[in-house]
Amino acid sequence: MILIKTDLHKYTANLRRAHRSAYPLTVRSTLDRFAFLTKMASIKSVIPSRFTIRKKSFTRLTIGFQRSPNTFDIDRMVSKAGQWAKTKGRASFQYEKQEMGGIEKPRGRYLKTATKHVRGGSYGKSVRERFYLSNIKVKKPRQFVSNIAKDSFKRGQQAIAVAIRTKMKDPFIGSGIKKVKGIYIASGKKTKLLYRFDKKSRRVGIKSWLRVATGKIMEQKDKIYVKEARRRMEKELKRGLKS
After folding, report:
1. Rounded to 5°, angle at Cα 14 from 9 and 15
2. In the prediction, which pLDDT does 214 show?
3. Same domain for 32 and 67
4. Concatenated DSSP letters of 96-150
5. What's the distance, CA 213 to chain centroid?
6. What distance separates the 2 farthest-apart alpha carbons in the chain?
7. Which residues pair with 53 in a beta bridge?
8. In sequence order, which residues have a C-beta less than 8 Å from that of residue 198 and are 6 or more positions away?
9. Residue 182 lies in a domain
10. Into how many domains does the chain fold?
11. 82 pairs with which residues across the strands?
12. Whether residue 194 sits in one domain with residue 219
């Protein structure tokens, strides 16, 4: 029989440290992992499947996650995922608005409501890329109408008349029949309304993406927790030992 004698102090110290810190650190890292994976699921699969993405970079920049506070108090631990309130100094709320629903109010004088014409003939379709507001240069009546009227509605009528007569190709602000003010485009001897200007607020329906992404990750929560627990325990038990 061989007598084995060694110092077990470093092993027991690691066990005590694991007992004291591994559990809260595992909880914190698991919460952070949940938030990170929710962010990635939102960007890579959920949002692209539920919305028409105009700029992928916008989605990547505005969707993020926030780590839990650096604390051992489990009751204070919370990780977050979602859309940042601001991106590069500008408000970013588009996806949050879809997630929560509610009332959309005009940020300026009007809400610009896309018509069937820019949606390919149906309100069930998305706005075609060439008609994105960011892709069109809209002319104001003062830019191309001579002897412009003081009355806003009459200015809009003048704009329509001049646009048809000159066969103007650029979209412009005008006023059509029933005093409908909006962005028009000349088409032969007529005009087509691209965006209607609305002064009233409108209700935005709920189209969840964050809850869907969260649900996908929560289906894997046990697996994620076990992986984080093993990683943390292994790190604590190997502390100060030779690999």
Report:
1. 95
2. 95
3. yes
4. HHHHH-EEE--SSS-EEEE-GGGGTT-TTSPPPGGG-GGG--PBPGGGT-SS--S
5. 13
6. 113
7. none
8. 106, 110, 111, 112, 113
9. yes
10. 2
11. 64
12. no
